Amino acid sequence: MHEAVPRPFEEVPHALLRKRVRDIASGVEGELMAVVREDVSDTPVRECWVKLAYVRGPSGREISTAVANIEAADLFPRLPVPPDSCAECAAHVSERFQAQVERDRSRVSDMNVLIMRHHPELRARR
Ligand SMILES: [Zn+2]
């Protein structure tokens, strides 16, 4: 008998659960259904835990993405999204995300200024 061994995972609380969010990596907007810590390693010997956010998009299909890519969709529309390759801006994005969760608009706009200063091409796309 072959039974799939369920991957270990645990749900973690998140301020935006059941709220409208945007995945800044793909641009998909939808409802944040769950945030889970999942072991994504392919061997039980070496564990590799990541935090994933599950977002139900308009089609009803759920996508999973890194928690750091999730932002509130309603609060601050059309935020500048820096390229993934920029580590400096990745730090700004995660601070901006935290500021959004705390509804700290001035810190959000500070982060936007830093990101757009670093990537002037984002300014034109707004
Ligand atoms: Zn940058």
Explain what the structure shows.
This protein has 126 residues and is an alpha+beta fold. The chain has two domains: 1-74, no CATH class; 76-126, no CATH class. The chain is 27% helix and 27% strand. It has helices at 87-101, 105-118, 121-125, and strands at residues 9-11, 20-23, 29-39, 49-56, 62-66, 70-72. Strands 1, 2, 3, 4, 5 and 6 form a six-stranded antiparallel beta sheet that branches. A hairpin with a 5-residue loop joins β2 and β3. The structure holds zinc ion (ZN). Zinc ion binds at residues 82, 86, 88-89, 118-119. Residues 82, 86, 88-89, 118-119 line the site of zinc ion (ZN).
Question: By helix and strand content, what is the structural category?
Answer: alpha+beta
- Overall 3D geometry? globular
Tally of individual domains: 2
What's the overall average pLDDT, rounded?
A: 85
Largest sheet: 6 strands, antiparallel
Question: First CA to last CA: what distance?
Answer: 56 Å
Residue stretches low in confidence (pLDDT < 50, at least 5 long) are none
The H-and-E topology, N to C, reads as EEEEEEHHH
Return Rg in Å.
16 Å
Q: How many DSSP H or I helices?
A: 3
How many DSSP-defined strands? 6
